[in-house]
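Aim 2 progress update. The chain analyzed this quarter is reproduced below.
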Amino acid sequence: MPFDGAEATLPALQAQAPLVLVDFVAEIFRRVPELRLAVEGPGHAGQWWIELAAEGMTPAVEWQDGVGFGLYGPGPTLPERPRATLSCPVAAAARLQRMMLSWRTPR
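Predicted structure tokens:
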């Protein structure tokens, strides 16, 4: 699915993705409405990738059943391992939002 906002992404995602993934996408859009994303999956090992874009950041999320949500970022080059892994879609969206806030705040 190409980069798009919630109004186009959620209906298409609901038709093909696991509910937990749809819940994550709905929650991250609620928390970061200006977010754009692209969804790819499932891969050969069952993993789904969500590539995000907002405010010059390009984090990514990997989801796999039994593993949860791996949060990567801020981009454009992503680390080899996720910065955090969470199983709950709401908790993963909240953590990603906090990570994005910390990445844009000057240190």
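The chain has three helices and five strands. The longest strand covers residues 48-53. These observations will guide the mutagenesis experiments scheduled for the next reporting period.
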